[in-house]
């Protein structure tokens, strides 16, 4: 009997150990790193070589190439079963040409989302502009691989990562919105239309905007170091808490060099006012603008996908995913500074 009792005890210990190991394994498998690792340089490259190809004719607002761009974005969301908040299979927020002026044709923002599991009315918006400057007078196509093809494909990969989490029962607590805006190159029109005319999600419920505009290249200032970096603009303008979270996420997962040169209120470039995050910031929504700086190919036909640093792009997209994950899953929404 004593031997039997010892065998039963040992068996229970093994079962308990196995259960504990399985629990630890499950916990490991459901960390954000698991889903961040679905963001890969190879997938980013494949998408960008299409999105910034000559077929898209420089994606000028209202023109045929821009229409191809929105269909490309839509098809990616459909193939990954990531829905639209507008209506089933209607991913386009239509903007009439009269809104733009200057003989611009009708255009569209593209919007998809993953509904929050616990706080669905609170929203994190990740944005990038889908347009570029089109074809030069001499017929050269401005492909806009970095500006802002890099931001566009980064959002598509980030959305896939959140969807992978949702499929396994670990969707974000807050709603995460993937917003591709048009008309940035002619005056931030698409984001202004969303914020001023037709916010699909109420602005008062919008916790933060993470805006991605050019994250695929290396500017001259950082070429020599060979180290991955990003310029961050706006992270501390409205919420010091957002800035603290951003720094924490970076140090925990990546330790990229964060360069705040362009965040200076006296910076002559005034980048804080020159990308789509500003239309959220002006409505007291905390923002971060992620940016790799300008380079010799900025707004030229030579901004092509072969010049993108895809390893850097992968890591930068993962950083933004982790930041969005933290904002979407923390217990309390971040607060505005008093």
Automatic annotation (TrEMBL):
The lineage of its organism: Bacteria, Pseudomonadati, Bacteroidota, Flavobacteriia, Flavobacteriales. This is Peptidase family M28. Residues 109-322 form the Peptidase M28 domain. One of its GO terms (molecular function) is metalloexopeptidase activity. It comes from Algibacter pectinivorans. One of its GO terms (biological process) is proteolysis.
